[in-house]
Structures
1.
Amino acid sequence: MKCVLISSEGTDVLFYWADEQFEENLCNRFGHPEQDRQQMSAFGDCINTLFAPLIISCATLLEKLGDTYTCFTAENGHLCVLHLFGDCLYIAVNGDGSENEDDLRRKLYVLKRLSEVHFGLVTLDSQLFKKELRPSDSKQRVCVWKMFQSLLLTYSRLREEDQSFAVEAVERLIHPQLSEQCIEFLDRQVIQQVNNSPERGSEEVMHAFILVHTKLLAFFSSRNASAVRPADLLTLILIVQDMYPGLSEADELNPELEKKMSTSKNLKDSDKIPVPRHRGNTAERDIREQVVLLGKGKGCVIWQYRNLLIQFSDLRKD
């Protein structure tokens, strides 16, 4: 029983995601048949009807009293957390008790951060942001919403399965010799090859790093590069995990891979870099381009995200 949505001050739902239990409960409540759940417009109407009074009351309290509520528990036990970012109201609901107020609030901040990463400076203008998040073209809207819905599902999975997302920190694998070799590889081969590509023109890669699942093995920055915050790294790791989740699934499908783990047993999880919590409505640095697959080979894939290179490796491969 989970739901997340973004609405405007005019009660327009700009984005929503709900799990199957929430969808089924809502459709039964409003008397919609099973097939209506597959239609975005029909279910969207149910979402609008359900949350419109809440959105209006928040706007009224803010207008009349200059303040509004941020969390409450309904009579049916549903926990609802609200946060106002600019002119947009972010709402997260949990009805099965699996998430508390802090969990839901973190989810809203992650959704806000993902929208900043995807849309860039557009998020600073509320009108432009609303048009980008809810395009008039229905097919384009489905693509945008499915992308954010998938990212939210991946984030929820990583929060349960991965320590770095549970504590909001970037974990590093400490292996000096291997890290040094990886940095040299990134500097002398990967970055030079990408920078020499005629398609890039004068734009150069500033950062490159290698991940083993969600853990940082090696990180390289050019001399003139600006710093990459741990929060940015976590966001990029989340995006890569969403686009390439196959490595974790391979563990269950092929137990023989566990025997190959002996080559990397000396890697230790340590050196956590704390990630500062998001506070207020501070605008983040613009990161506008999408993740692009540059190459794929045995044991690794290489992504490009703006001026960052990400090599996502599986050390269990021979």
Note: The longest strand covers residues 79-85.
2.
Amino acid sequence: MADKTAPESQLRLEWVYGYRGHQCRGNLFYTARAGEGQGEVVYFVAGVGVVYDVKEKKQKFFLGHSDDIISLALHPEKRLVATGQVGKAPFICVWDSATVETVSILQGGHERGVAAIGFSGDGNLLASVGLDDYHTLNVWDWRKGRVLASTRGHSDRIFDVQFNPYLSNFLVTCGVKHVKFWTLCGNSLAGKKGIFGRRGDLQTILCVAFGSEELAYTGTLSGDVYKWKGHTLLSVVKGAHKFGWVCHGLQRWHSEALGRQLRVHY
């Protein structure tokens, strides 16, 4: 009769091949160690968070998720990572990219999946957007695992959420034919729709970043870059990118850069 006891040997993950770039943005970042000459990047594949040392050709793995990861954000100090997953009861893990150990787990705030996440400029708060019908927007005290504020984000899919790094109570969401500008006040979120006016077409917005306290920049499906002040569109750089899938970091952009139609890559 065959022995049905479990073997003493166990499988150990040695290498993860590939990279999840489909239907998700903000999916790869340099960690703080990259600035120390270590060349580390963090990304995800399926349900695994991967920290890859480019120079040493070594990987470390975060295995705290129970389903596929679809969103990722890097803490301003560039060591802590937040990842969000899909599933019936999706959750967010905040983990240390150096030790790949869990720091905090954020549960109960979303349904179906966590489509986008972003840390505040001071690193104390985390914003997240769900895949439910209302694409719920939550702001978390991530250290305590507690939702501080929650509201309906938009009826259409939201692709990105980012805090203004200069104003910790101001954040922006964007997605299918919309962009919204939010102000966090206590436990409430007040949103204003972006006013496109006649300067730009109402089109799908893929990503957002900031150039100063009052200025925001968004990348569009057509490859244009829109410049905003408050919630009003100021100007458009036509054809800033050849293809529509734009994902950028513009925190250090200035208005003159837009005038020259520069392409900036970090």
Note: The mean pLDDT is 88.
3.
Amino acid sequence: MDSSKLLTRQTSLSDQVIVFKDILNPRTDFDQLERLISASLDEKEKTCLKDFKKYIVKGEGSWLLDQQILDFVAGLLEHRSLNLDIRVKLLRLLAAGACREDFWSFLQMDRKNRTLMKFPNLFDQLSVEEQKGVALFLCNTFSSGKGSEWLMYGSTWKLDDDTDTSNVKITAKVAAYSLVSYTPSLQEYGSALIYNIALKETKALSVPTAKYSEEELPTVHLDYGSVSNQDIMSSEQGTQFVTLKVYNDVAVELSMAVLKYVKKTKKSSRGDSVPLYEKSSQILPYHTQRHAPLHSNGSG
């Protein structure tokens, strides 16, 4: 298939992000979702479905997206006993909604339960079709500045098993697993996710080490803001940039995924056989050991 029909390059805050809008058909997906669930919904849930349709299909305002709709969406994602196609269609509809500038308000409502990120965190346990839906949803969320900030949010929060994670770690996990998948479309979504992540500027503290002593630095007001990779790499001597460690971990994880993909591609081009244990899974293992954080100009 011609990739030009799949990709939409869209300018957002001067960045050329890659989104997949043209391959989605919200009206068809919604009609199929309605046929799958309408018979089992109560009146309150039918109202939620109707309002969700007004936003996704008819293009009405984000004022329709309230907590009840979010709880309704969360319920469909969390109940794994439901028909697989229900989650797949719902994820594709979320991917369509994510292309809208005002969709970030729906994401913000999820700060308490974080269902919209907890489900992608299960990426390696999902079916291929669910994985495609998740990858599309996250990739299209990069289409807006506030959406991309939500995906790159580095502060930690707790999963149900009390382990720490963050939005950016889950975004990187989906990108990495997608890239090393044996499914071509997932590889395409994974490469687009990594590309979109690479476009984002890192939040960093600018530390003028040449101007102040270690004893003086704690009392100095330091500039904190977005810094490009070029600025970090070409910073003047005597200035260090300090970033959150989570971004270093993400850089390592994505680098390992790219390396795994390149090695796999070289094997395929030479006609080398792939070990049976790798063929048995749609997702290749890419992080078999822990790696030390990547440091650059004082980041840590």
Note: Residues 1-14, 273-300 have pLDDT under 50 and may be disordered.
